[in-house]
User: Fold this.
Amino acid sequence: MFQKFDVLSTPDLAAARINRLRGSFDTLGVDAVLVPRADEYLGEYVPECAERLAWLTGFTGSAGQVLVFRETAHIFVDGRYTAQAGTQTDAEVFEVEDLVGNPPSRFIPRCGQENFRLGIDPWTFTSSETRKLAAAMEAVGGELVLLEDNPVDMAWDDRPAEPLEPVLIQPLDYAGKKVDEKLAEMQAAIAAKKADAAVLSDPSSVAWAFNIRGSDLPSTPHPLSRAILPVKGRPTLFIDFRKLGMDAKAYLTQLADLMPPESFDESLTLLGRDKAKVMVDPGVAPHAIALAIEKAGGTVVEAPDPARLPRAIKNEAEIRASASVHRQDGAAMVRFLAWFDEHAPNGGLDEISATSKLEGFRAVTGDEMQMPLKALSFDTIAGAGPDAAIIHYRVNTSTNRPIKPGEMFLVDSGGQYVSGTTDITRTIAVGEVPQEQKRFFTLVLKGMIAVSRLRFPEGTRGLEIDPFARHALWQAGVDYGHGTGHGVGSFLAVHEGPQSISRRGEQALLPGMIVSNEPGYYRDGEFGIRIENLIYVTSAQPVEGGDRPMLGFETLTLCPIDRRLVVTDLLDTGEIEWLDAYHARVRDEITPLLADAGDKAWLEQATAPL
Assistant:
């Protein structure tokens, strides 16, 4: 099993650990420290050795920061984690704050004092974030102190070792583009910025650029590594040699100069001494990188990571591989849903047993279809009844809840396969569900269908598409507190930028980009609903009677949507036709992959026309 259900939160230890951290303030010369849920690579997921926020506070969510003063401490989380932070942290030690509406950069000016000094580790904040914090400190006559050592590491005596998982070569059949082509494309971007080199600080960019993968992190299959790419010539790859087997080392030696991670700082210094102009992404790279280059005399050219947009635009081979693995993943989901419908109404199932069974179906189906499950793309979110209202709920042995008839069960899950990354959410009826919940389910479905059917002109950004998913909910006086969609990698991070369908989605959606389509609705303490498919942007096509071609979406995810929760009267003719056509496609593509007659019969019924 990839997913564990142990209780990871340790709020009872937080008071002592916070006091130990405060004990270093005088030595560090600070009055407070700000600790994010981030490591030195600034990815969404971090290795066990970098779970500093969880170790310090007990909070185990994937986003957050803690601001520790000499007398008080404040934990900042977004709307996904407000409830979780309240239950996982000691209320006598921490006050929970809004990371989006009232982040530390806004909070500090209201409580800081003149000559106040705030310490941060510049390896765990981007340059953009660091500038905001510096401005906040300046507003109160204080100072932002860039610490040489991480203050939590100084207090963490039994910190785990860094991961050393083997590097794997991504087959060209799935990567779709050779390394030399990718490097040349990025070098052209460097030249366009009149820079001498670029730093690839994001391990996903490094993995994409060199067609390698790894398992240093539990859900994101890239090796923790960095690279420096000159405008001409060979790149330098900084990676622990203990991760390289004979084949991987021979492969990478042909493509780059290999250096150990501890040489990275020295290489930045050398770039600075050579007066190099170095491209660094201020929204992605740790501020320490820019700091080292400028301190040594170099010039930082702030520009987007040259790999970020190219890896977001999937090539034909990546789209083809993703479509194939979504058929496989759909077959696993159908087997699970058929099993669930047989057992859940009779009682006896709980959130852990359902989660484990789903992972089992993914693993068995992957082995049968010769595309094994390599990892989960994230820990499965499986919430019954009121637990489904916790947007990023992660069940453990202390929160595990029976799945009861008369309620809905939300399961948000995905797998990592060599051919692609999946992410799907289904909300399922357990027996007869109250009519009000069916109404909200249908309103969520209307939003998902609206995005799926959308045609839009070139240049349209995610923030302009987001309202289509919310329109029906807004008319009912409700909304949801997360984005409608995130980018998805190709056997890489399940949350990938720069594209998104959200209020912050500034990136234009381009052909080949994969995004999720996942509106929802959550009523605290009662129920939660989310329906999610992955979709990709198709090339612009003419519209009959129109005067300009339009982009659109093609759906990758193939799995029934629970018809029992649909209030047909709330759907218009076009929405009904879309759902019936989608279900017909699911039936046609998934049925041949099922061996069990019972699963086939279940799918036939689940995809019948409305």
